[in-house]
Amino acid sequence: MPKPKVLFICLGNSCRSIMAEALARHRCGDRWEAASAGISPLGLVAPETLQVLAEIGVSPAGLYSKGLNEINLREYRLVINLSDHSLHGFLPTDGAIEVRNCPVPDPYGRNLEVYRRSRDAIDQVIIRELCREGEPGA
After folding, report:
1. Where are the beta strands (DSSP E) in 15-101?
2. 35 has which bridge partners?
3. Mind giving me the DSSP string for 37-48?
4. Of 6, 42, 83, 129, which sits most exposed with the smallest number of CB within 10 A?
5. DSSP 134
6. 42, 70 contact by CB (below 8 A)
7. Considering just the CA atoms, what is the radius of gyration of the chain in Å?
8. How far apart are CA 109 and CA 112, in angstroms?
9. How far apart are CA 60 and CA 58, in angstroms?
């Protein structure tokens, strides 16, 4: 049986959603297939993003910045919006995709400590929203 797919969305797909994709693969890749995209992609992964992932032993393999137009949204069961921007008008409206809003501050252009705080907040979102799903008592 194929794993359900989760898509993480943020504004630029350079920091938050990239971190979430990597963390979800690391933490619960046995249960979920994770991807990420940006509303307005920057086309690059911030070096700080890669650094703070490496600090905790999370692989950045296969990560790259992409937009929603590069994703077949109908393949995803769950979308987690890490930005504070509305996804209205960006996603199919037939109700087939569950959307969860879990805003995390954008670290882009800030120092490494801000990246670390965002990474840790995203890690908690992953644990809360994905890793415990389907577990007894969840």
Report:
1. 33-38, 78-81, 98-101
2. 7
3. EESS--SS--HH
4. 42
5. T
6. no
7. 14
8. 9
9. 7
Give the Cα-Cα-Cα angle 58, 62, 68 (nearest 5 degrees): 110
Rounded CA-CA distance 89/6 in Å is 19
Beta bridge partners of 33: 5
For 22, residues 6+ apart whose C-beta sits below 8 A from its C-beta are 53, 58, 59, 60, 63
> Quick one: which H or E segment has residue 6?
strand 5-10
Q: What is d(CA 131, CA 134) in angstroms, rounded to the nearest whole number?
A: 8
Checking DSSP bridges between strand 5-10 and strand 98-101, what pairing results, if any? Answer: unpaired
In this structure, what token pair is assigned to residue 34? Answer: 């994770």
Cα distance from N-terminal residue to C-terminal residue, the chain = 22
Q: Give 8-35 pLDDT, tens digit per residue.
A: 999 999 999 999 999 999 999 999 999 9
| 67-125 pLDDT per residue, tens | 999 999 989 999 999 999 999 999 887 777 899 999 999 999 999 999 999 999 999 99
The answer, as to whether pTM is greater than 0.85, is yes
Cα dihedral value 51, 52, 54, 56, nearest 10 = 160
